[in-house]
Amino acid sequence: MRLSSYFLPVLKETPAEAQVVSHRLMLRAGMIKQQAAGIYSWLPLGFKVLRKLENIIHEEQIKAGHIPIQMPILQSADLWRESGRYDDYGQEMLRIKDRQDRDLLYTPTAEEMVTDIFRSHVSSYKDLPLTLYQIQWKFRDEIRPRFGIMRGREFYMKDGYNFDLTKEDALHSYNRHLVSYLKTYERMGLQAIPMRADSGPIGGDNTHEFLVLAETGESEVFYDSKVTDLTFGDRDIDYNDKAACQSILDEFTSLYARTDETHDPKLFAQLPNDRQKSARGIEVGQIFYFGTKYSEAMGAYVADDEGSKMPVHMGSHGIGVSRLIGAIIEASHDENGIIWPEGVTPFHCGIVNLKQGDEEAEEACEALYNSLSVLGLEPLYDDRNERAGGKFATMDLIGLPWRLTVGPRGLKNGVVELTNRKTGVSEEIPPEKAVEKIAHVYRAVKVGDFLFN
Ligand code: 5CA
């Protein structure tokens, strides 16, 4: 993409209404625009990051054997009356009437609808296990929307639902989700710690939240410092292997990590003093097992091998896709702007032409642009007639992991400058070496090899 023909409405001023750094930077980098309290348009740069996160989520969900679907945003109130949640959900549910005076609602989650799909089409245990998921907009009429897209009213969520014959099978689905979520967050450059939590309006008593530690987090958490040493790395997980999935749950959750609601002071006190930590966390996902709560209420039964009808065991699993962008920025920025992890960056590399109009510099920039594009990478070429200082400031603000700086002086010596956004380290190398290096980095993070379709 050439910046002269892109739409990147960066702001010079720091917006006064934004209380947290991720909100400020998203506004300044022209990623989002507020349209009403807690409701945002996604401008090109923000929309691109959203799509990157979606692709990672789809890829990891499909690897775990889960099947993508899409359910409508507006749902009939009658379906929600069957589970009792039309009345129970309270003021967070946005209720709507159509022209025939029928009650509809804007989906805050989708347990009822997916259970309806299941009961209409599945009647035998032979069709189990089954996990369906979607990535879809949700609405919750939050009393206090804040921190930009981190606590919005309209927000983007991956929501998945498992159907299993037995509790044991459903707990395996729970563990499988936990493992796939750990992989997903790690690919986004995040460490998200699973902690036992409260289930709220979803129900059930088996639930974990995934928390990214950050000063601006809304939950206070107490944890064993050892949990932050755990990384998932390149482990190859067989998702059908129940024991393997269980052992990962045990490894990542055995260390008394607690949210404030379920914090057990006695267990925490047993830890050595230097391992007792408290911090704030941003909740970027939550998984639930709630047994037969919805299947019994709504008649989702299957015949087992002896022909008796059993209510299916279910759970649901959510990732806050739009919130994650805020969490990633909270965890990765400096005073000059965002620092995107390589796995989610909107463009792979920036190209700054120090002297627009100089024939040689322009040719070199075009050549770099083409070589990177041919390799399947997306460069953002700042080809505007602007001062170098302004170009650098924009590149730092929007946070691309790598920047190529091209100018007549370097070109005389056959080099361009390659700068790493995170470390600030620059090196002068021949253009083809720079392309090779960038390509090598992105091959290692496996970006762009998956297209959800
Ligand atoms: N039905 C279950 C799983 S699909 C469910 O709704 N879970 S949830 O309530 O925990 O939501 C899933 C994730 O959505 C949360 O972990 C959080 O990351 C995100 N989320 C929830 N509310 C908001 C909000 N108001 N703004 C942005 N993200 C939100």
Identify the notable features of this structure and list them briefly.
single chain; 453 residues; alpha+beta; BirA Bifunctional Protein, domain 2; Rossmann fold; 2 domains; nine-stranded mixed β-sheet; five-stranded mixed β-sheet; 14 helices; 23 strands; 33% helix; globular; binds 5'-O-(N-(L-cysteinyl)-sulfamoyl)adenosine
CATH class of the largest domain: Alpha Beta
Summed over residues and divided by their number, the pLDDT gives a mean of 93
- Derived from helix and strand composition plus strand pairing, the structural class reads alpha+beta
Rg estimate, integer Å: 24 Å
Bound molecules: 5'-O-(N-(L-cysteinyl)-sulfamoyl)adenosine
Topology-level CATH name of the largest domain: BirA Bifunctional Protein, domain 2
Brief sketch in words of this structure:
Helices cover 33% and strands 27% of the residues. It has 453 residues and is of the alpha+beta class.
Topology:
Layout lengths: L20 H8 L3 E5 L2 E4 L1 H20 L3 E2 L5 E3 H7 L1 H4 L5 E4 L5 E4 L4 H11 L8 E10 L14 E11 L2 H21 L4 E5 L9 E8 L5 E6 L17 H12 L4 E2 L5 H5 L6 E16 L1 H6 L2 E3 L5 E3 L1 E8 H11 L1 E2 L2 E2 L10 E5 L5 H16 L4 E4 L5 H11 L3 E5 L1 H5 L3 E5 L5 E4 L1 H14 L9
Parallel strand pairs: 3-7, 19-20, 19-21
Antiparallel strand pairs: 1-2, 4-6, 5-6, 7-8, 8-16, 9-10, 10-13, 11-12, 11-13, 13-16, 14-15, 17-18, 21-22, 22-23
5'-O-(N-(L-cysteinyl)-sulfamoyl)adenosine binds next to strand 8, strand 13, strand 16 and helix 10.
